[in-house]
Amino acid sequence: DTEVTQTPKHLVMGMTNKKSLKCEQHMGHRAMYWYKQKAKKPPELMFVYSYEKLSINESVPSRFSPECPNSSLLNLHLHALQPEDSALYLCASSSKIGRANTGELFFGEGSRLTVL
Amino acid sequence: AQSVTQLGSHVSVSEGALVLLRCNYSSSVPPYLFWYVQYPNQGLQLLLKYTSAATLVKGINGFEAEFKKSETSFHLTKPSAHMSDAAEYFCALQTGANNLFFGTGTRLTVIP
Q1: Does B34 sit within 8 Å of A108, measured CB to CB?
Q2: What is the rounded average pLDDT for all residues in chain B?
């Protein structure tokens, strides 16, 4: 069983809806990530939070809005999405950040988003 | 620029045969390299990692990889394929303190 929990597992939304994806980890990790994975493609980094502060934002459209309420939780707020935003959204965490980070990420099972 | 290239988007092997998945990298600094596996409808799981210690790295499920600086390669191998090894495999390179860059992936099919 994964130690990074994502909800919901599946989400269908219209282009005018507002929804949120949630991610939770209880491993004491201080870095959390959102990745987007299109079908048959590798994951692409969207956001990184270190110590609850946004540290990397890979030029993601503003219709995606991340939020890190505390060190265990990471949300991704969705508004006015487009059909091309349909993808698997993966949350991950890591125990180390900065120069000490050797890149080992723990991934959740993902939230599969369909935008109609 | 830093990048990883996975040769072969699909690899098929017979059950019990050798598995070889290829990964080449480009990096201006000593790289950290990783292999992740993704089973259908699941997230990614770390198989093994190279972080400048031993060049032959052993991972979970009988997989191992060898870092070869002269060939800029980090190929993944397993002596004997099992049906449960069928999955998507991603080679990844750490490009910054908090960023992994993934290769395009190789889908492994194991034929009974």
Answers
A1: no
A2: 92
